[in-house]
Amino acid sequence: MTAKLARFSWLPGGLAATVVLVIGRLVAPNSFAALENTVYDQVQRTSHVTASPQIAIVDIDPPSLAELGAWPWPANAHAAMLERLHTDATGVVAYTMPLTIPQGSDETERMRAALRLLEASNFDKSAQAQQLRDLLNTSTARVNPNARFISAMRTHGNVVLPVEARLGNAEGSAADLPASLLLQADEAVLDSAAKATIVRPLPVPFLDAANAVGHLLLTADSDGRVRTDLTAVNVGSALVPSLALAIAGRVAAQKHEPLNFSRPLELRVGKHTLTLGAQLRMRPQYFAPGSANGFAHYAYSKVLAGKVPADQLRDKIVLIGLTDAETTVTTPLATNTSAAEAIASTLSSLLNATVYARPVLTQGVEWLAMIAVVLVAALALPALGVRFGAMVAAAIVVVLAVAEWGVLSSTRVWMQFIVACVAMLAGYALYMLSELIRTANTKASASKDPTGSLRELGQTFQRQGQLDLAFETYRRCPLDAPTMELLYFLGTDFERRRQNQKAAAVYSHIATRDPNYRDLRTRRSRVKDDPVTREPLPEMPSSRQPAPPPSRRAAPVEEAPPYPGRTLGRYEIERELGKGAMGVVYLGRDPKINRVVAIKAIPLAEEFGESDLAEARARFFREAEMAGRLNHPAIVTVYDAGEDQGLAYIAMEYLRGQHLSHYTDPTLLLPTETTIALVARTADALHYAHRQNVVHRDIKPANIMFNPDTDELKITDFGIARLTDTSRTKTGIVLGTPSFMSPEQLEGRSLDGRSDQFALGVSLYQLLCGQLPFRAESMPRLMQKIATEPHAPIRLIRPELPEAIDIILNRTLAKDADHRYATCAEFAADLRACAPAPKPAAAAAPAEHEWLIP
Predict the structure, then answer these.
(1) Active-site residue flag, 698
(2) In 24-170, which residue ranges form alpha helices assigned H by DSSP?
(3) What is the pLDDT of residues 249-289, one digit of tens each?
(4) Catalytic residue among 61, 88, 229, 698
(5) CA–CA separation, 736 vs 696, rounded Å?
(6) What is the pLDDT of residues 676-692, one digit of tens each?
(7) Are 673 and 835 in contact (CB under 8 A)?
(8) What is the enclosing helix (H) or strand (E) of 184?
């Protein structure tokens, strides 16, 4: 079940992201409109665009209504205003509210009735009758307010009137509107426009006197906010412009500039070409009433009374409109915007080309972003894991949101990425849920199958290139079919590294159960006959593993056969001193100065894959150089480093003595005073190295050399653990001897000198009592103990030890690095304060041995 879930780990994230995209783009395109509109409105609010200074608004406000009477006003009031505006030399004048003008007065009707009686009398041919007829006609014309209003419009010469319309394909036409007041457009533009019907036509004399007409439709979105302007509507196969576009047309005509629909969704206004949306909708920049960057407002009564200086209105576009609450609309910037203010915002955007648009290209970019999100959710998240996947998903959402905001605010191009953001979040959420389910199933499977965790640990080691640890882990598992399959592929990995002896050992282990497993016979024969296994330089282990427990007695070291004529670089190889976890140590001689050296040779080509070899080689020489700069009496001196015959080597001083691992046998323990003194000296050396920004990473008794005859102490293998840690591990588990690793090293976190301090504390514990503070039957259990469980107090094992030893060990073995000593120098000082000066080593010290690398 777990394997199947892992195999289809791409499905949850990809499926969730795809479902969101299908819903948000195809099934219910407006499902995320509220989020998109929130971004759009916020950009409008933070915009620094300034309204066109050409536009002024004359408000029919409550004080004007109180002075001039209740609305609607007679035509005389409008005529008087037009006469005043003509006197002030204004530009275009437009009414932004329906013109509902009351009919003529009773006096006018009485004069018309007298004129009709005169026409019906018997003396209609007389000279007196003609004089009476002329007198009545002149008086009727003078008291007719509509005639005065019409005359005022003709005198001004730039008046735009509104027409009331409603959306819908009802019966109706624009036949009553003069053709000169309509927009000329082809069939494609007419088909793109929304269909509408004129509700209340204006009187024909008004239309004849007007210079342009425009509809008053202000349509709101689903949330009640007006964000667009219908630049034109289709009324009976005629194109009626919006009031703002009609005014812009008059301004363009005065400047002899074009205003037309160049394409169905493109409007040319003078030198600018504006991109429109569906139904010829335009997205203008709105302005809040009374804002500093908005429009100039004047009261109707003050303008009519001449209280507004003429120079403030000269050549301006004057919009006349009501300010009562019944005629206000909600825009992205305010909830109490008058119709005049909204129309003025649209007109300003037309004149200044400050229009928000969604060109066709934006939809292509949006689809690319959404496809990328699906691919990331399906393919990248399983590869990155939950933690890094969360970081990547959050980064993508932030980048898309910032991109939408930044492009919209800087270029007014609206690319809508909210759907992609939601898809990314949904994809990660479902992927994380599936991972939680898979992890729970894995734990359940592991609890049912005790060997399952061991197999997984072995696979982890194998993926990291720690093949020896993988083999050791697999050998703890029952030799069943799953384990045999893992071992088979482990053997092939050894073959690829040309470590045929180890491959042969793996295949032999499989053969104990089934000698005919797959092509096992062929592979065993091939690795057995491979001449590489018979090279003079022996095969070197490729992974670090704990040294085997020392024997009860120190066995004499058998000299390896001599290597006549063999060299590494300029050094002559005399014999093998021992095999180490990362290579072989040879006794060599520098012929130039006749100096005996110990040469540690590491086969980088076998230890590292091709992709990591160059990095490993560079790391090797950097770490060797860093170790060579360390100059301390308790740190082995590095003379040289190089590469020859495919082997990287380090030449260092040749030492005699034993590794402290020899003294961890309970029967060979050093005196307490000597052990404490040696560990304090080691801590001093580590403090020096840490001040040079060098962390050992693999402190253990096997890497500390001691000669009891000369009381010489040396720390070895600086830089080697760092080399493998950086170049071979990719998933967080670092190399080193697991029993001596700090909790932060097991977790793959960054290390400092306090990690070496923890390892030295484990070494002190083992040297004092002959056993490790953390022991377990399996590697996972050991790691768990080191990370979470306290060690057993050492005085329960050796009560005769000083009481302060428990306090010191409790501090150095703290799980949290912040609870340990700040430096190894403090550790050394407490050790020296704990015990008197060390006595000379007892007779139990072993005979002199040369340097062996465990």
Answers:
(1) yes
(2) 33-45, 62-68, 75-87, 106-120, 127-143, 145-156
(3) 999 998 888 889 988 889 999 888 999 999 999 999 999 98
(4) 698
(5) 10
(6) 999 999 999 999 999 98
(7) yes
(8) none
